[in-house]
Amino acid sequence: MSTAAAPRPAGQDHLWSVEEHLEDILTTVRPLEPIELQLLDAQGCVLVDDVTVQVSLPPFDNSSMDGYAVRVADVEGAGEEFPAVLEVVGDVAAGQADAPQVGPGQAARIMTGAPLPPGAETVVPVEWTDGGLGEGPVTGMRASSAAPEGASGQVHIYRPAKARAHVRAKGSDVKAGDKALAAGTVLGPSQIALLAAIGRGTVRVRPRPRVVVMSTGSELVQPDEQLAEGQIYDSNSFSLTAAARDAGAIAYRVGAVADDAETLRSTVEDQLVRADLLVTTGGVSVGAYDVVKEALSHVGDEDEAGSGIEFRKLAMQPGKPQGFGSIGPDHTPLLALPGNPVSSYVSFEIFVRPAIRALMGLQDVHRPRTTAKLTADEALTSPKGRRQFLRGSYADGEVRPVGGAGSHLIAALAHADALIVVPEDTETVEPGTEVEVVLLG
After folding, report:
1. Strand 84-92 with 154-157, pairing
2. For 308, left (φ over 0), alpha (ψ -120 to 50), or beta?
3. Which of 220, 250, 296, 355 would staple 256 via disulfide (CB 3.0–4.6 Å)?
4. How far apart are CA 261 and CA 299, in angstroms?
5. In 215-325, which residue ranges form alpha helices assigned H by DSSP?
């Protein structure tokens, strides 16, 4: 369970900037404590310590081809007309402990990944030989079980091979003592493969944060259910749960909670057992039925020193009303987002995603940003004193607005891969202007 420091208080009339609110979140949220996990359980987690290679990879010289291990001098000058004829002294299979000695005039049949036998200096691919059949070049070996005699007799070799051809050298991938992975690495499939290859069965990581997402509103109905008059489908809890998983969290979606303060307070308390971070959407404005504000404004004031949720107004659009604080005995951080679909999603990207990445222990918690030339049919307008985040489509250094500025226009969100940032002191942005862009892809 995460433990959050207390958020800093501010006056009720204070208009928070985006930076102030984000800084308060990131200075409050603490990275989760490290734990030791089995490799597959560590997927998506952040490595806490540097990992040093204990055993070189590969751990021994081995063949990269199916063929014959030979001495260089014995195949020098070999050709189609005058092949080198060598005595086969046995097989060397992958995982075989005792390999036959290869002396002058001898060859050992060797399989891909098998250790280079003593005395051998190079590997000749089977396609350069007659495979011991005496009938000209072959395309492959016969199975050992079907033709055990292939490990003996003679082999004709039709091409020479240079020293250590088709041999993977010991330590050619990584050597003992090398740094395999640095602390702070997010463990994906290739990193887990490397850890397994160097013999690490467990690894010390910060676990993926458990994020509980819940939406509020008596008007909300679950998808696939029948809508009644005045009802809408709950999309926010789905979008934010998916966004939390995309950020690296283990996310749990709670069905929409009706506009009842006691029910919401009870639901939040029930979810604390499985939450490192709680995210609510809806009920944070100034309406008579803004239940999140009613239920959580004073939660923890009497029971938990340093706990409590503060509701704020931010100088941004969309996403002016926001809530942040901590709740419960472990001071679990809670972010309360607006209920309009675009407002909640933009708020997630700007505030919640960085919080999740901070819980993971990552240093870079933000989406990448760039500048792009605005491509639009007309100038963009933005309210003075508000930082506006507009949905956009970015490609080849240009960005085009997608949909209007309304915070309820969710259809355009599905076609956006960027947010166009209009600063607080800018009221008009002309086409062709260089603008800041947050890349969502």
Report:
1. antiparallel
2. left
3. 220
4. 11
5. 236-247, 261-271, 291-296
Which tens digits make up the pLDDT trace of 38-53? 999 999 999 999 999 9
What six digits make up the tokens of 92?
């060397």
Query: Is the distance from CB of 259 to CB of 217 less than 8 angstroms?
Result: yes
List all residues 6 or more positions away from 297 whose beta carbon is below 8 Å from its beta carbon. Answer: 308, 309, 311
pLDDT, tens digit, 9 for 90 and up, residues 394-416: 999 999 999 765 545 677 788 89
Strand partners, 213: 253, 279
Task: Report the SS3 class of residue 402.
Answer: coil
Find all residues with CB under 8 Å of 211, minimum gap 6, and list them: 241, 244, 249, 250, 251, 252, 275, 276, 277, 278, 279, 356
Helix axes of 353-360 and 236-247: crossing angle, nearest 10 degrees: 30
153 Cβ partners below 8 Å, 6+ apart? Answer: 87, 88, 132
Beta carbons of 359 and 28 less than 8 angstroms apart: no
Question: Over the chain, what is the mean pLDDT?
Answer: 90
Backbone φ, ψ for residue 24 (5° rounding): -60, -40
DSSP letter string over 85-116? Answer: EEEEEEEE-TT-S-PPP--TTEEEEE-TTPBP
Q: Give the pLDDT mean for 204-233.
A: 90
Supply the pTM of this predicted model.
0.84
CA gap 412, 399 in Å, rounded: 14
Is the torsion defined by CA of 128, 131, 136, 139 positive or negative?
negative
Burial of 287 (0-12, 13-18, 19+ CB in 10 A): exposed
More confident site: 403 or 23 = 23
Q: Please write the tens of the pLDDT for every residue from 354-376.
A: 999 999 999 999 999 999 999 99
Contacts of residue 88, Cβ cutoff 8 Å, sequence gap at least 6: 68, 106, 107, 108, 109, 132, 150, 151, 152, 153, 154, 155
Buried b (16+ CB within 10 A) or exposed e, 151-163: beeebbbbbbbee
Q: What is the 3-state secondary structure (H, E, C) of 45-78?
A: CEECCCEECCCCECCCCEECCCEEEECHHHHCCC
Structure token pair of residue 269:
């308390």
